[in-house]
Write a structure and sequence with these properties.
CATH superfamily: PEBP-like
Largest sheet: 5 strands, antiparallel
Strand order of the largest sheet: 8-6-5-9-10
CATH architecture: Alpha-Beta Complex
Helix content: 10-25%
Oligomer: single chain
Shape: globular
Order of helices and strands: HEEEEEHEEEEHE
Strand content: 25-35%
Number of domains: 1
Distance between the termini: 73 Å
CATH topology: Phosphatidylethanolamine-binding Protein
CATH class: Alpha Beta
Number of strands: 10
Number of helices: 3
Structural class: alpha+beta
Length: 183
């Protein structure tokens, strides 16, 4: 009987551990993003609207430590501080299904992928344009294990970071978010 217990422990432990790992919820790996468009926690005015002497240029983004299994990225830039004025988090930039080899995005560059509508109802980057003082903006990059469906009735509209995590969490295998202020 003693040998049976040892045999079970030795031979069953790897199977139990493998099953536990397979059943465990997927967590985001330690992917990192940086941006030359952010200095001392403040976004460059180039990324602002014309009313703030900006050029409506999307920020530069570098992505590193991409999790294995990543096939595509999604990038969202939103403004949670807009809730006080607009009643919702404002979406400035929404690009999904960016091929995984695109880890260096220059400022004012639209990466290959599908550009979704922002809250200005444009399919492009919409510059920061706060009318009530300084806002904190979030730039999120998400590693996806498969593309997001963008055709037909299931096509997403302006996605906030929170909405992407909620609606497509099962496809996200890594993520990183930078917060920066403007002006």
């Amino acid at each position: 009987m003693k040998h049976t217990k040892i045999w079970l422990a030795v031979f069953m432990a790897p199977a139990v551990l493998a099953a536990a790992a397979w059943l465990a919820p997927r967590t985001a790996d330690a992917m990192e993003i940086t941006s030359d468009s952010i200095s001392n926690g403040v976004l460059d005015s180039d990324s602002a609207c014309e009313d703030h002497d900006g050029d409506d240029e999307s920020p530069q983004i570098s992505i590193s430590d991409v999790p294995p299994g990543t096939t595509h990225f999604a990038i969202i830039m939103d403004d949670p501080d807009a809730k006080a004025l607009d009643g919702k988090t404002w979406v400035h930039w929404n690009v999904v299904n960016i091929p995984v080899e695109n880890t260096e995005l220059e400022g004012d560059e639209t990466p290959p992928g599908v550009v979704l509508e922002n809250d200005d109802e444009d399919e492009e980057y919409g510059g920061m344009c706060p009318t009530d003082g300084r806002h904190m903006y979030c730039i999120g990059v998400f590693a996806l294990d498969e593309p997001i469906e963008t055709d037909g009735d299931e096509a997403p509209e302006a996605l906030t970071i929170e909405m992407l995590e909620s609606e497509y969490g099962d496809q996200i295998i890594g993520s990183a978010v930078i917060e920066a202020a403007f002006p």
